[in-house]
Amino acid sequence: MLFVILLLPLLLGCICFAAKKPLSRAFTAFLLAVQAAVVALLVCTAFGSGAAAAVQLTDTLTFALKADRFGLLFCLLAASAWLITIPYCSVYLHHEEKVNRFYGFFFLTETMVLGTALAADLVTLYIFYEMTTLLSAPLVLHAQTKKALSGASKYLYYSVGGAFLVLFGMVTLQSACGTLTFTAGGVLHSAPAPLVLSAVFCVVMGFGSKAGLYPLHNWLPSAHPVAPAPASALLSGIIAKVGVVGIIRTVYFLVGAEHLRGTWVQYAWLTLGMLTVFLGSFMGCTEKVLKKRLAYSSISQISYILLGVFLLTPAGLVGALLQLIFHAIAKVGMFLTAGSVIYLDDVTTMDRFRGLGRRMPVTLASFALLSLSLVGIPPFGGFHSKWQLALAGLDGLSGAAAYIMPAVLLLSALMTAGYLFPPVMQAFFPGEDAPKEARIREPLALVLPLAVLGVLGFALGLFGDSIVAAVQSIVSSML
Amino acid sequence: MNKILLTLPVFLPLVVGLPSYFIHFKTETARRWFYGLLICGTSALVWAAVLTNNGEALTLLRFTDTLDITLRMDGASRLFAALSATLWPVTMVYAWDYMHHEKHLDMFWAFFTAAFGITLGIAFSANLMTMYLFYELLTLSTIPLVMQAATKLAIRAGVKYAAFSMTGAALAFIGLVFLIRNDAQEFVLGGHLASYGGSMTLLLTVFALSFVGFGTKAAIFPMHSWLPSASVAPTPVTALLHAVAVVKSGAFACIRLVYYTFGTELLRGSWAQKLVLALALITILYASCMSIKQRHFKRRLAYSTISNLSYILFAVALMTTQALLAAWLHLLFHSVIKILAFFAAGAVLHYAKREYVHHLEGLAPMMPVTFACFTVAACALTGVPPFNGFVSKWYIGLAAMECGAWGILGFGVLLISALLTAIYMFQIVLHGFFPRDDHPLPEPGSAREANWKMTVPMVALAIACIVLGIAPQWLIDIIGKVVGV
Fold it and tell me: Is A63 helix (H, G, I), strand (E, B) or coil?
């Protein structure tokens, strides 16, 4: 069953390389149908058993898949993101050449991303992690300009370097834990030796490279502006989260959170996480290029998730998973919006936002809804995640340190508002002296995904309590 | 039968191959049949020997009661011989196409075949004296191969190679004398020197010198610079030199030195071990950095070889059984990967007339099979799972982590080198498949895909990389028996 879920996007990718008319209605419908099938299969698996499949490569290397609740949550998120991007691609990619190649790597990457979440042990996860990097790099360099190639190279080598950092820790963990299979609550029975702590640190830093953790975050601002918008959307929205999956699996399913609480690694991680949150929002405020601004925003927002994870408490993990969901919705939507404004009116910088709301009302309205969620204004979804994170921060640490994290989150939220609200205001309220420009036709396939995501951020926020409860039950299955 | 299968593979290529220099072949086909039968026949004999040999020794020449030339197959012999016997015919097929337009083909084929026999002699040696003899012969038989092109550059490269190899042999000779003196030159797993009562300083110094001596062929720092110069040789020569014959003989000799004559008991923990580890690590890092700097395709791969050989030497120098297993894995896997990479470079050289990395922009659509195979080699060399390079790195890592601070440091250095490998290998892949939009694409007639004689070996090797990456356990078990796990 799990193999089928992985096989479908793989086949889709191979078919795309050979497709005759990739942007035709028929082909888009075909892609939508198969992708919907993937989502449906994932939902079915959620109700069935945690189907497992294992192949022994050598006595220490296994390839095994397992669908537990956390894995399925991520897979559903990923598959849905891919689903919603397909209609957008069918319009946006008229802007690009070599559409076959883009679609091909697009779906191959999906296979690898799903595999990361379905991996039953660290070796399998590592295999899918490396393949994700290799297969998503062609998406980033698609335009093949000098900047695109250098951005993609940076992405490639930061991720591959991170992977080798993971490998370093992984080998130690294999010797220390005896196994690398994921078990809820962790595998270690006693306090880890200093070497094991260092190994876990290396692993988390390695995966953190993909998740944009300082100081390995630098690939994000280079890779996002040059990638085609659907690729940037999924890169920030899902692919970077693959690093988060790796970290969660290592911390909660291999080593065990209670062994790491209070150690130097936890303090190091929390410090780096808070630094990243602050740095990302700060850089976003001064950045003029829209996609780069959103890239810095991602750096900051993904580290919200990591902070929740690094608190090593159930409440922290709840906040982290909520942020995972809501940030994915918001960021995918925002990057798609950025792509829309580029596609429709060649708007790449913030100064051209003036009056954009009059010209592309649906697009900018979606952007506005998504911004509200990202900043964390109630009752939008983003509020719930940030609220949970702040509460967890207060409870998770002791003494004065307890106040640092909520303070950093608040500061970051203010800065996020600072870099998102002014453009939105300018777009809808440009002032008396702004030139009156005609409305631009917004293709349905292009704006429907944006609108859906924008409304979703709001609607899910209304049902926030149920979502929080659902996430809490998932978290309890992980500990 | 045993004796025949032991001597024939070694001497047939020598006795028939060397004098074949004087044969005047009427047609190219006749030449191909001759050498095809000779080399494939020898390979078949080797495989028969590997599978049926009973481990009996055969003394060919006895000088004194302690000095003799003896052949014998043990587990290590089997592994090395099997590797050579598999890759020599593959390279021969490749060379049929590649060497088609070269000159001095009679010299090439004669020494190419002779080197095969000599490499098998190194594999089948039962003591250090025999191995030393064949080692020197290998140098002599490969010098003409390096100088094949007969240009000034080639001759200089050959002389450099000769000078370095002779120096290495001189250093190794010190080790040979010491071991003979102490009655320890016979190859036995674990060595003979357990009852050694003499000066430890002498033993360790001799060991260090002879390791660097034998390691010259394995391009250990500071005896490495002959290898990049030798990349002026025709690609079948560099592929074979850099994958099987010369460099892996060097690694093989170091294995024999550490595990089969001196023995790890005496050496573990000593300053000599640390020195050798340090040299290996320096080589790994230095050579990887130099690779990135190189813009010449084959020189880049040459430095890459230097670096990867020291992965093997690092594992050998760790001096545990697990480490030896890992060293063998990388020895075998790297041979396959590197020969594939060189074949691709040679195909590009031959069919697209391009030598430099920055000239490869956009070449992949014109040579898809070549570049696809090179991509496999790049992923395998970097150590991306599920290719074989990942498995050998994994095992080196597992072994290194058991060996204290040096092991951990070493594995860290190895992984830094792996990142550098990704950079210098993937750059070529990216250039080929994703050229910059402001670069002129290669002209339509300027390149075409290689002939089947090149693509079939490449595809076979690429498949081997994948299969060995997905299902390596059978090989690990075989090596485990060889090293005594």
Answer: strand
